[in-house]
Amino acid sequence: MHYIRTLSDKTIVRYLLVGGTSFVVEMSCLLAMYHILHFSLPLSTSIAYWVGLLLAFGLQKVVAFRDKRTQLHILTWQAFLFGVLTLFNWGFTVFFVGLFPASAILIARPLAQIIFASWNFFLYKYVIFNDAKQAS
After folding, report:
1. Which residues does 105 contact at the CB level (< 8 Å), separation at least 6?
2. d(Cα 2, Cα 21) in Å, to the nearest integer?
3. Can you point out the beta strands (E) in 3-129?
4. How far apart are CA 107 and CA 43, in angstroms?
5. Which of 98, 107, 117, 127 is 20 to 30 Å from the Cα of 136, by its Cα?
6. pLDDT tens for each residue of 67-85
7. Residue 79: which residues within 8 A CB-CB, separation 6 or more?
8. What is the pTM of this model?
9. Which distant-in-sequence residues (6+ apart) come within 8 Å of 21 by Cβ?
10. Cα(127)–Cα(135) distance, rounded to whole angstroms?
């Protein structure tokens, strides 16, 4: 039990767990839309990305970075920064997945996720949620 508590005290562990959960939800949406509903690959990728993204932001803010601040000016600033990062990550994802054949979706999308999750961690920690420890 102590080992689990020690791990949960590490921001990177919480970040990865939240990201993993969001990723599973996103990939489930992607595969369902593409294989069951027969949406196009770009449309399926785009919709699934946004579903996973909204879930990830909420969980990253509260769980991974333990930022429970709810003041309007803080939430507005975080939403703005998150929005800019999101647009960049979304464009990167759609572009990157488009470089691969549709049969490689289970490789392309996770690879895109790993790439941008790396820079997201640092941006969340040092830019978007950087005052979380000072406010608690």
Report:
1. 30, 34, 41, 45, 97
2. 23
3. none
4. 18
5. 117
6. 989 899 998 999 899 989 9
7. none
8. 0.69
9. 55, 59
10. 15
